[in-house]
Amino acid sequence: MKKLLALLIITTVLMSIPLVAAANTKPSLIKIVFIHKKEDFAKPSGTPGKGPPSDGEIDYYAFLGKGVEWKALPVNYVIDPDNPDGLLVDFITTTIYSAAEEWDTHTGAELFGTFSIVGDASWDGDDGDIPDGRNEILFGNYTNPDVIAVTVIWGYFRGPPQSREITEFDIMFDIDFTWGDAGDTSETELGDMSVMDLQNIATHEFGHGVGLADLYADECSEQTMYGYADYGETKKRTLESGDIAGIQALYG
Fold first, then answer.
1. 18, 53, 68, 180 - which has most CB atoms within 10 Å?
2. What domain range includes position 217?
3. Where does residue 34 rank: exposed (0-12), middle (13-18), buried (19+ CB within 10 A)?
4. CATH number where 113 lies
5. Taking 70 as the threshold, does the pLDDT of residue 230 lie above it?
6. Would 15 be classed as within a structural domain?
7. Is residue 5 part of a domain?
8. How far apart are CA 154 and CA 138, in angstroms?
9. Using one digit for the tens of pLDDT, what is the confidence trace for 232-241?
10. 147: pLDDT strictly greater than 90
């Protein structure tokens, strides 16, 4: 009887080991890349986002995935101001900070914390790249010259929704475009058509950084997370009703 009892105990322990190991195995990091194109281009292939609805019901926001958000807040980031357009460091940092704070203004959570200025930022979204532990914002030359900006999101996007989370994002503004301040457009539809407005695009890209996807339905064209932009546009500097509803659904 004692031998039988001992055998049962050993068998039970051995059977439980794989289950414990499986429960403690964290899924692999995954990256999602968002490509922001000009208004006159089609939706980028493979880019997450919502197109025209088939049932007539329009959601004015979309998520990266169920449960995909930052679990540890606030999110700090670094800015590499090196650029070919002669933009001053103060202009770049102030503009990018304002873009981040626009999201904080509309949610009860403090999404973005402090930033620091660096000279060695890299966009960790190319094939073979791995995340380097920094949320980086920089200017760079993307392989496709028609792309305004690209944002890569790293995180755990599979498994139970409660275990999914964003762990890093990088934003790159493509130097194939001329960047700057498109000016005050309160009296006109568009501002300075010679520049891509940095704050306009940065606000949109920060939305990806905290868990929102692109929108491609024409009815969503006034939302900050609309997937297209153009020279002189500044309407994405401030959030619209759908952007606010989306960020509050994620963070309160």
1. 68
2. 28-251
3. buried
4. 3.40.390.10
5. yes
6. no
7. no
8. 17
9. 999 999 999 9
10. yes
Reported as a single tens digit per residue, the pLDDT across 98-118 is 999 999 999 999 999 999 999
Instruction: Please tell me which residue, 3 or 119, carries the higher pLDDT value.
Output: 119
Contacts of 196 (CB under 8 A, 6+ apart): 148, 173, 177, 178, 179, 180, 182, 229, 231
SS3 assignment for the chain: CHHHHHHHHHHHHHHHHHHHHHHCCCCCCEEEEEEEEECCCCCCCCCCEECCCCCCCCCCCCECCCCCCCCCCCEEEEECCCCCCCCCHHHHHHHHHHHHHHHHCCCCCCCEEEEEECCCCCCCCCCCCCCCCCCEEEEECCCCCCEEEEEEEEEECCCCHHHCEEEEEEEEEECCCCEECCCCCCCCCCCCCCCEEHHHHHHHHHHHHCCECEECCHHHCCCCCECEECCCCCHHHCCCHHHHHHHHHHHC
Residue 85 pLDDT greater than 60, yes or no? yes
- pLDDT higher at 210 or 47: 210
Task: State the pLDDT at residue 82.
Answer: 98
Question: What pLDDT does 58 receive?
Answer: 72
Note the pTM of the prediction, 2 decimals.
0.85
Those residues whose C-beta lies under 8 Å from the C-beta of residue 200, and which sit 6 or more positions away, are 182, 229, 233, 234, 235, 236, 237
**Tens digits of residue pLDDT in 5-28:** 333 333 333 333 343 444 456 679
Question: Do 213 and 220 form a contact (C-beta atoms < 8 A)?
Answer: no
Per-residue pLDDT at 3 exceeds 60 = no
Q: Which residues of 110-128 are buried (b: 16+ CB within 10 A; e: fewer)?
A: ebbeebeebeebbbbbeee
